[in-house]
Design brief:
globular
Length: 93
């Protein structure tokens, strides 16, 4: 899919995976994203017309907004395999 995935298995506080984009040859480009993945039907409990409300605490908000990489929140619905995502930014919180 044009990305190199690196799971963050130690001291997980709000970032589960780093994605590094690859060029057309498959070489790493140094362009990275930090991904926080949440899985399960409980994350889809607060539906709206255009998606879902996902509630975060101030600690995570500060961490994600202050992160050196762009942070993406991904909600994975393990009932149907779909994953929905949004970039964490002041205008999306």
């Amino acid at each position: 899919a044009g990305v190199i995935s690196r799971e963050q298995t130690t001291h997980d506080f709000g970032v589960d995976v780093h994605f590094e984009f690859a060029d057309e040859r498959g070489d790493a480009t140094g362009r990275l994203l930090a991904i926080q993945v949440k899985t399960g039907k409980s994350y889809f409990a607060h539906a709206t017309e255009g998606g879902w409300w996902f509630y975060i605490d101030e600690k995570h908000e500060n961490y994600w907004l202050g992160h050196s990489l762009p942070v993406v929140l991904a909600l994975h619905d393990d009932r149907d395999g779909n994953t929905f995502w949004v970039r964490v930014a002041p205008e999306t919180i």
